[in-house]
Design goal:
Two copies of one chain form a homodimer.
Chain A lengths: L3 H14 L2 E3 H19 L2 H26 L8 H17 L3 E4 L7 E6 L22 H13 L2 E9 L8 E10 L10
Antiparallel strand pairs in A: 2-3, 3-5, 4-5
């Protein structure tokens, strides 16, 4: 298993190899998207679903970029997968790193905490949205979509959210199933 | 008037001072937004309007960041404003630089060409959208919104678009009015 320090270096150098835009432009564009969905659906639960669906599509694309540019070799187990997501994946795409916590009793569950979450900059929720709208739900979709492409069916939940007063964004990942140990056949 | 080389350096160093996310994540998120608007409005002209409206709001926010972080001093005239947009503004936020062309006969008009436009990566338009959907229209709104905050009413059009076969994205900016030479009063 790669050490945290080495994964952090991998994340940093993969980030440098990417093209970038300003975090603020991204944040404001994402905010426009969420607002549009709220206007469209007038139902926060449905907005959560839509954000997850969009994230899923995005995750399926980002995993290719991740595999091409991260130079990460195959992950040994779920714990290592989560370290790679936190230290390399989040770093490459969102520019931030996460910290992973896991209990030895539950090897199929891990928590990733993002001390800084660019999605939330300048965001304040109206009271009626608090606890209902999962503003960061696109991340849930991205992780599920990306992991499914590497044969892991994973449940992801936002369990802590600064928009409702929590200290940091915390995601809970639960490995449900390893779909197939073989690489998928070439789709010619 | 600052030289192009010096503005380019200003743009590069302002870009380095920004927080970043990957261009690909931004592009895919923007793509989700455009798709959502197409589903909502089923009318490309209305999608263009909505993108411009969103861009306008974003531009009003980005100009503050621009003034705070670019360290650009007051622009002398419209030509210099356009150079600053192309070499500093686009660089800071989208990570790319534009080139400006202007005719001495029309000092209130300038064209900015973006050889690379991150919004368009992985995008292909269906035939019925070509020439109708202005996929990059958020840029029109951003420029109008940002410039209005610094007392310039400007018309912006996407006049060339790689999605319909043009070589590069080209924006035409027309200065309509300088709203007020004085800085706006403090809004206490």
């Amino acid at each position: 298993m790669s050490s945290k320090a080495s994964l952090q270096r991998t994340g940093d150098s993969a980030f440098k190899r990417m093209d970038h835009v300003s975090s603020e432009l991204f944040t404001l564009t994402y905010g426009s998207l969420v607002l549009q969905l709220i206007e469209d659906f007038e139902d926060y639960a449905e907005v959560n679903n839509q954000l997850e669906r969009m994230g899923n599509n995005i995750g399926q694309r980002l995993i290719e970029e991740f595999l091409a540019k991260s130079r990460v070799s195959k992950c040994g187990d779920f714990a290592e997968t989560c370290e790679v997501i936190a230290l390399v994946g989040f770093r490459m795409f969102l520019g931030v790193t996460g910290t992973v916590s896991q209990s030895a009793k539950e090897p199929h569950v891990c928590h990733i905490t993002l001390a800084s979450n660019p999605l939330l900059d300048f965001v304040e929720l109206p009271d009626e949205a608090k606890g209902v709208l999962q503003y960061s739900n696109i991340l849930v979709g991205v992780l599920k979509g990306a992991l499914e492409m590497v044969q892991m069916r994973v449940d992801v939940e936002v369990v802590h959210d600064p928009l409702v007063g929590d200290e940091a964004t915390e995601l809970k990942l639960t490995l449900l199933e390893i779909i197939n140990d073989e690489p998928p056949p070439d789709d010619e």
